[in-house]
Design brief:
binds iron/sulfur cluster; disordered N terminus; alpha/beta; TIM Barrel
């Protein structure tokens, strides 16, 4: 098993001294790095590792710098997402972090694709909760013909009734399936890379990292937006997290959900997920610095890992899931609205303009 994500890195990673971001006392000038990112600098691997290894004493400076980038592209807007677990459990894949996989003994609800009324009801809840996007998720290696038919029939009905964007997360897709989703009105497809290419085989053996990249290629080719992110806390190294953030940058994904492993009993990774709230903040800052104008969403594990520091995460991220996750509970939506109001942030709805670079 690889060593867990740690906040301390070799000195060579942390003492940045190039044309860079070092202050006379040797600490990193995060503000300068943010300014360089805003003028087009793509952070290097060393800089990414330095962000993850940021000393706790500099954490507020780091988050302030991340906020400069976030604010430049998104102001104080927050985009909310609502997840519908449209088919739960029964998945033939063996992703070690997932409670819905064939190798998981976790006690979760197991059911086949929900009927149309339930999917419509979910869309109504998404709209009531001020979500911009309704995410329809199924547990599967990829969608069956029947599931494709059901999704392509319901999406136009949802869009006719509600002012929502639709994101579909249906597993691996081929070009034809991606084209069908585009044709029925799906705006975006989620397919997470989850970790680095190097670490991928440690968490899954039934499909490859390249399979996942191929699905994202199909989504891009079909003309839909790509939503893809990852999970930290699975036993990967800091390099894996940086490599994943850079791969997402290179693939040009539009939206990046950052999950913090919620170790579920009955899954192979039930002993992992040992993260501190400060590590989570540094991870969010890394994704903001590496993907400055992309939507960064704090996803699963937010409540249990960031805990009382959740509001600070919003200085790097600009998006949240409101409500429950796929098989775990989120905090009540009212707590999220209150947090955003306390921060002075506003929920961005469908009709409002997004960062020009996101179009
Ligand atoms: S493919 Fe998706 S639903 Fe299936 S085990 Fe992997 S993460 Fe879970």
């Amino acid at each position: 098993m690889n060593e867990p994500l740690t906040p301390s890195l070799p000195t060579s990673c942390c003492s940045v001294d190039s044309a860079t971001n070092a202050t006379p006392d040797g600490s990193t000038n995060w503000k300068d790095l943010a300014a360089r990112v805003l003028t087009g600098h793509a952070i290097t691997k060393e800089e990414g590792l330095a962000i993850l290894g940021c000393p706790d004493e500099e954490l507020l400076d780091l988050m302030s710098a991340a906020f400069k980038i976030r604010h430049h592209h998104f102001g104080k807007h927050v985009q909310l997402y609502f997840l519908m677990n449209a088919k739960s459990g029964l998945c033939p894949e063996d992703c070690g972090y997932c409670s819905q996989s064939k190798i998981s003994d976790a006690e979760i609800p197991k059911y086949n694709l929900l009927n149309k009324q339930k999917l419509l009801d979910g869309a109504r809840v998404a709209a009531e909760r001020q979500s911009k996007t309704y995410c329809i998720v199924i547990s599967a290696r990829g969608p069956s013909d029947r599931e494709m038919r059901a999704v392509t029939e319901i999406v136009p009905q949802i869009k006719e009734k509600y002012d929502l964007k639709i994101c579909a997360c249906l597993g691996l897709l081929n070009d034809e399936q991606a084209a069908q989703l585009k044709a029925c009105g799906v705006d975006r497809v989620n397919h997470n890379l989850n970790t680095s290419e190097e670490f991928y085989q440690t968490i899954c053996s039934t499909h490859t990292y390249q399979d996942r990249v191929a699905t994202l290629d199909a989504v891009r080719e079909a003309g839909m937006e790509m939503c893809s992110g990852g999970i930290v806390g699975m036993g990967e190294k800091p390099e894996d997290v940086v490599n994943m953030a850079f791969e997402l940058r290179d693939l040009g994904v539009h939206s990046i959900p950052v999950n913090f492993l919620n170790p579920i009993e009955g899954t192979p990774l039930s002993e992992e997920g040992k993260l501190t709230p400060r590590q989570c903040l540094k991870t969010l800052a890394l994704f903001r610095f590496a993907n400055p104008d992309r939507e960064i969403r704090i996803a699963g594990g937010r409540e249990i890992h960031l805990r009382s520091l959740q509001p600070l995460g919003m200085y790097a991220a600009n998006s949240l899931f409101v409500g429950d996750y796929l098989t775990t509970k989120g905090q009540p939506p009212e707590a999220d609205y209150e947090m955003l109001e306390d921060l002075g942030f506003t929920v961005q709805r469908m009709e409002e303009t997004v960062s020009p670079s996101m179009k």
